Amino acid sequence: MLKMLLDAMAMQLAGTVEEIDERDCIAICKVQMLLQLMAEVTNAIIEAKKSKDTPAENRQLLHKLDAQFEALERSTRAMASRAVRGADVKNAIVAGALAQLRAVEWAVIDEKGEAA
Questions:
Q1: Tens digits of per-residue pLDDT, 15-32?
Q2: Is 103 left (phi over 0), alpha (psi -120 to 50) or beta?
Q3: Burial class of residue 54 (count of CB atoms within 10 Å of its CB; 0-12, 13-18, 19+)
Q4: For residues 60 and 78, what is the distance between their CA atoms, to the nearest angstrom?
């Protein structure tokens, strides 16, 4: 499931790299934020590989990643409110990634409400 999220982010990264030109730093801000988020997902995958892969551990791992994304979203939103250059773009990327993570979480919840 985290691999699905990483795949989606990789496709987004590929598209964003195509947007880069010499005069605009917005695409570069997007790339930086995507790479930071992808590192968080990769770390979660590594942590999952080390675990016993129980539903409880998987839920805990997803909640931890969700909390990390949410904290980053709050941070970038605060920077955007202070008009920090590129922060609004970074906040949009993080908010999108948080929505993607939550969609992936929702997709793996079985009818009993437990992560698969």
A1: 999 988 877 788 999 999
A2: alpha
A3: exposed
A4: 27
The whole model's pTM is what?
Answer: 0.84
In the chain, the amino acid numbered 10 is A
Distances 20 to 15, 23, 72, 87, 97 between C-alpha atoms, Å: 10, 9, 23, 17, 20
- Phi, psi (deg, nearest 5) at residue 21: -140, 170
Question: With the CA atoms of 64, 106, 45 and 5 taken in that order, what torsion angle do they form, in degrees rounded to the nearest 10?
Answer: -120
| pLDDT tens figures, 63-95 | 999 999 999 999 999 999 998 888 999 999 999
6, 38 contact by CB (below 8 A) = yes
- Contact by Cβ (8 Å): 26, 88: no
